[in-house]
Amino acid sequence: MTSSRTDDAEGIPAATVIVFRDAPSAGPPEILMTIRSRELVFAGGMAVFPGGRVDPSDYELGAMIGGPLDPEEAAHQIAVVRETLEETGLVIGLSGEIDSDKARRARSYLLQTGDLATVLDHFGWELDLDQLTPFARWFPKNERLTRLFDTRFYIADLGTGAVEIEADLAENTHLFWTSAQAALDAAERGDIKVIFPTRRNLERLAQFDSFSAAKDQAERIPVRTIMPFTEEREGTKWLRIDEDLGYPVTAEALETVMRG
Q1: Which of 54, 72, 110, 142 is least surrounded by CB atoms within 10 angstroms?
Q2: Residue 143 pLDDT more than 80?
Q3: DSSP letters along 203-219, please?
Q4: pLDDT higher than threshold 60 for residue 2
Q5: What is the reported pLDDT for 124?
Q6: Is the dihedral of CA 47, 49, 54, 55 positive or negative?
């Protein structure tokens, strides 16, 4: 067996969220995915979950709020709130008088200012980060990618999901709701493209018949940083992750892996 584990690479702090909603008809819950612009350096043209890098303003706000979260974790959760509003128009992780009209105006205001704190002040909203549940953390530091992101994943629930979404048309070209299994099926058909971490997370999500089931597992399995590594089996190289992190599939032949 060969492995390519290394410990000297640094990643760009990032955060992403898997937003659940009840299916319109009886069936597994749906999750929100977005197609990234093909012009982007990282994961261009790929189907991913909403999110992005943690900005300096996220750290500033995270250091100000206090509470049980350490500032680093708070900054990542704030980044999820900001990026989701910016990319999709959805308001998650916030409380106050929120409706579709205010969400639209808040998104426009955020795009003008680039700062979530000014949006909170302007609309009289407050952070409600209890709406987010830590789910995973992926850091492909062993892979030769153009950019290395150290990404924390969260899950959140919209319930009925009677909300408006609209792609920002800058980083994303399309937003869509789908069950995790339907997304995997679409990837198999070639209708969408997914990178290794997204495929593994979709496989994990496909196990759950409700948001509460996903949250229960997320709270039972401590989040540890996942660093995919390569190993050779009978002359074939595989990309692998550890087997005790809640993922039903932990390896894929390297030749079939889609990179960012």
Answers
A1: 72
A2: no
A3: HHHTT-SSHHHHHHHHH
A4: no
A5: 97
A6: positive
Do 139 and 227 contact (CB within 8 A), yes or no? yes
Which residue type is seen at 124?
Answer: G
Q: 37 pLDDT band (50/70/90 cuts)?
A: low
What is the residue-averaged pLDDT of the chain?
A: 87
Angle at 153 between CA 150 and CA 157, to 5 degrees: 165
Q: How far apart are CA 97 and CA 110, in angstroms?
A: 17
| C-alpha angle 67-71-77 in degrees, rounded to nearest 5 | 90
The DSSP string of 54-112 is: PPHHHHHHHHHH-SSS-HHHHHHHHHHHHHHHHHH----SEESS--HHHHHHHHHHHHH
Containing H/E element for 44? none
Tell me: the pLDDT tens digits for 58-108?
A: 999 999 998 889 999 999 999 999 999 998 999 999 999 998 899 999 999
| C-alpha span between 1 and 237 (Å, rounded) | 10
Reading the block at residue 60, the tokens are: 């500033």
Structure-token pair, residue 10? 């640094």
Task: Count helices and strands (H / E) in the chain.
Answer: 7, 13
Query: pLDDT at position 125, please?
Result: 96
